Structures are given as C-alpha cells and as structure tokens.
## 1
Amino acid sequence: MSSSPIVLQPTLTLPEPIIAADTPDFRDKFNHSPFMFSHNLVGHPLFEIPRLVELANTLFPKGQIFSFGSGNSPGLKWGQIPNRKPIVEVLSHIGESDSCVMFKSAHIDPEYKALLDKTLIELEDITSVPLHREMTWSIATIIVSSPHVITPYHIDHDCNFLFQIHGEKDVHLFDQNDRSVLTEEEIERFYLGHISSANYREENQNKASVNHLVPGKGIHHPVLAPHWVRNKDSYSVSLSINFCLRTCDLQARIYQVNHYLRQLGMLPTPPGKSALRDKTKIIAVEMFSKRKPENHDEVVRSGIKRITAPVKLLQQVVRSLKR
Ligand SMILES: [Fe+2]
C-alpha cells in the first residue's frame, strides 16, 4: 500500500476542512453512484502555475508527468492523441497550447503528499468507510488543460474524487453497471492491461449524466464508471484523488480469469453471480499476485501477468521459429 503513516508537513497550510461535507451523499452514494460536492482548494498556492512548473520539474525525471494534445472527439483512444513537449513550455502557455498536462503521482512532492493524506483522512471520516484499512494504493494526480480540451472516454480501476480548482468543465458520466454501455468483455480486456478497451458509442450519449464543474465544486465517481470530459472557455486545473479498494482489486481478478475463459470459448459468469466461482477465480490469481506491489499496475495485474507469462513466452518462441 502506498499510504504510509499520515505525517503532515508542518510548513504547509491546508484548508480546514478541504472538503465541505455538506451532503449525505458521501455516506449514501460512495462508490455506488456519482455525486457532486464542495471544497476549499480554490486559490491555494499549490495549484498556481509557477508552483505547478516547479512540480513538473520534480516529476519529469521520475517519468511521472505526461502531456498530450487535445482530442477532438470523446471516442478517441489514448494512443491516437499526439504527445506534446516540452512540458514546461506547454504548461507556461496552457491558455493557448491546446494541450493537457497530467501530473501523475504529484504526491512524490511532500507538500502534495500532505494534501493527499489530509484529504484521505477527511474522506474516511465523511464516508464512514474505513478507507485506510481498505485502500491498497492511493495517488494524487493534477490535470492542467487548455480551453476546450476533450479527455476521451475511458474507465478507471480507481475510486475517484475530482476537485475543480480553476476553469470549468463538463464531466460526462455513465453507469458502470449498465451493460448496454460498458460490456463484460470491455472490462475484462481493461483488466488485462488494455487501458482504452471501453468503446464510446454515440447512441449511448443520452444515457450520460452531464456534470458541470466550476471552481470549488468536485465530483465523485465510482470504480469503472465510464466518463469523458470537455473543458469550457478557460484553462482548467483539477486535482484527482484516486485510490484502489481491496474489494475492487479482488473483483479485477475475476474479470481477468473471465477474459481467458471467454477466449477458450466459454461464457464466463460475471462477478457477483456465484460466490463459489468468484472465490475460486480470486484464489487462483491471488496466489500469484505480489504481496508488496510497487506500483499501481502491480496492485491490479501482477497475479495474472505471472500466470500468463510462460504462455506468452511460448507464443513468442513459436512466432520466432515460424520466421
Ligand atoms: Fe478517468
């Protein structure tokens, strides 16, 4: 688990509280359905552009920051969007660079780590969920993007609390349980590592809730809820507090086994329909999962990768012999 004991930096002043717990939705809807909330991070120095440039310089050597151009459609795949470099140049002119800069693992910097830790403490309290016991990974990501940028349609394994700090955007969110929107096969492929496996279908757009975020507002969306985002007329700064939950990690193991059962021509039982089948699949993958994962991918996929590695190696050998 990435969350070490909570130690706040004495030099940094964070809002008290960060999240305005003014809705029962935190308790009633957590990880089941989306809800909006209010927060107090607007105007905080951690989100001003010069401080973000400093953070970019910290993250760049560690490979924890990415920049890419704007997609013009929610249906684009990540691989279809061009990279943008150099990042600091893009960031300094974010108002007109038609780009998005994603600060993955902003919490490598101790001040952002303090922010992550305090937010998680507050969330544990207001959701009444023992998050620090249930979490297997946590991360603070900052997304800075130009006016009108579209973040394409996708799904995430993480539970997400998105805080809007500058600019406005529309978050289009779909029901993670609606199989006419998100199919079992798409989820199974996602958990094998195909991060763009969820396909945007224009005919489903009317099933989305469109959530307008302004500075001071945020939105929570559950694990696997498909979403895409469009910025409005100003550049946007958002903070995403993400974390993996143990129960969702175990569900991922079921989808991974189901992917291979489907490849064998079977019709696998989705999670939640048979306790015995779920347990068998979980045990099979769990035996091979890393006890102390060192990154997000290892939390989700180390077990299935270890199981399938010999088969993949064999396939490579066969391919090379055919040449
Ligand atoms: Fe996302």
## 2
Amino acid sequence: MDPSTAFRLDGRVAVVTGAGSGIGRASAGVLAAAGARVVVADLDLQSAEATVAGIKDDGGEAMARRVDVADPDAVTALVDETVSGLGRLDVLVNNAGIMIRRPLTEVGPEEFDRVLSVNLKSMLYGGQAAARVMRPGSSIVNTLSTIIDFATAGTGSYAAAKKGGEALTRTFAVELGPRGIRVNGVAPGWTDTGITRERHVDESGRFWQDRFDELAGRMAGSSPLGTVAEPLDSAYAVLYLASEASRFVTGHVIRVNGGASMA
Ligand SMILES: NC(=O)c1ccc[n+]([C@@H]2O[C@H](COP(=O)([O-])OP(=O)(O)OC[C@H]3O[C@@H](n4cnc5c(N)ncnc54)[C@H](O)[C@@H]3O)[C@@H](O)[C@H]2O)c1
C-alpha cells in the first residue's frame, strides 16, 4: 500500500475562497498538485487569475471566479456554477478573510458586521450551499486562526469571527457527519501574507519593512520552533483534511502555529 495515494484528489473538484493570495493561493496550488480541479475564488478576480496561471504552469487544472463571500447569493452561485460546470463538489475551503484592527471600544456596527460577514457568515453560507450538493466522502475546511486561543488588543472583531467559525465548524461536523461529509478547521499561526503585510502600509502606501520584520521576529519567538509559518504550512494541513487521509477526522481544528498555542 502506498500511503501517498490517500492524499491524492484525482477526479475531485475543490473550491477555495480567498485563493488569490497567501494561504488560499498556496492551498489551491497544493490541492491542484494533488490532482483536484480547483475553482480559485476571490473578490479580486485578477489575483485569482494569477493563481490559476501559476497552477496551470505547474500542470494543474484550475479556473478563476470572482466572489464576495459576504454575499450569500454569490456564494450559492459559486457552488452551483461549480457543480453545473464541473459536475461535482468534493472540497470547499472557506478561507477568505479580512482583519480590521481597532479596539473594541471604538469598533462601529458596520465595521463589526463586515468583519463577521467576510470571516464568519461566509462559513455559514459556504457550508449551507456545499451541504446541498456534496456527496458522502466530501470535506469542508474552514480557515480559522491562532486568535481562537488568545486575546490581543485591537483584534476583537476578528477574534469573535474566528472563534465563531470554530463553533460553526464543530456544529456543521455534527450535522453533516451522518451524511458522510466532514467539516474541520485549520488555524494558522502568524504567516507572511497580504493580511499581515497590510498592517505595515501607511496612508501614503509605503510598506515599513523594518516594522514588519520586527513583528515577524516577535511572532517567531512565540513558537517553540522559533520561526513563523509559510502559507504552504497551512496548505498541507488543508490537503490532509481535504483528502481520504483524514477520513475519520471531523469537527477538529489543526493548529498550524509551530506550537504557539497547544489547546
Ligand atoms: N496570515 C496570517 O498570519 C493568518 C493567521 C491566521 C489566519 N489567517 C487566515 O487565513 C486566511 C487567508 O488569509 P491570508 O493570510 O492568506 O491573507 P491574504 O490577505 O493574503 O488573503 C486573503 C484573500 O481573501 C480575499 N478576500 C478578502 N475579502 C474577500 C471577500 N469578501 N470575498 C472573497 N475574497 C475575499 C482577498 O482578496 C485575498 O486574496 C484568512 O481567513 C485569514 O484570516 C491568516
């Protein structure tokens, strides 16, 4: 028996949201490299197309779609068009996310709602749409965050969304388990991506490399391994949860944070 076959996704169809950048892009690439046809969905169509170009250069199969995951109709259309165009949906990675840093005492209702819509409600919409079309053996993976284990100033709305995402992950797992659909989460640690870089861009558009490096150094220090994550680290966890290799794993959260939290 060759254990690597358990990680293959030949003949499967995957949708990855927020796949125009960072962890979503790496996840789409890894799923495609494992044999899946991948729908690369993002609010930014150009970045999704760039991800698709990279996958095709590597010999994989992928197509780009624009989606706003905060819009339930758009998420439903993404899933339905995937099934009508590619015949099935085996893997959904609810990965798109945003972070707006502001103390909870200053967060307004619209901003709070936007953070919850993109990070949390999207997992509800995606899970509902996928549940309508997925067959037994399918897998839903939600991108959470190490923030589910910590409280830090300025990240309250994001933390509320990700902690809520953990609750949705577990409840969907219970509700969809009898139908053979697994639902799990990946909680990345601090990773060099768009989200972590944009914090160090000022109003003039200047990127403060020294501040970014200083924070990356501090984040590396929070891991017993002494480094920060690369997008590929979470992508490998996504592949595991998407594939037969994890066929008896559901309602679980894999923390890809170098041991920064061990809940
Ligand atoms: N980078 C980190 O340190 C880190 C840590 C923990 C969790 N995460 C989570 O990982 C996921 C991926 O983020 P990333 O770090 O790769 O950041 P990123 O900014 O590089 O990628 C996020 C992608 O989501 C897309 N997006 C944003 N809003 C969207 C919307 N409404 N609809 C569709 N697409 C949308 C963006 O265009 C972008 O391509 C997010 O859920 C994030 O919260 C990141």
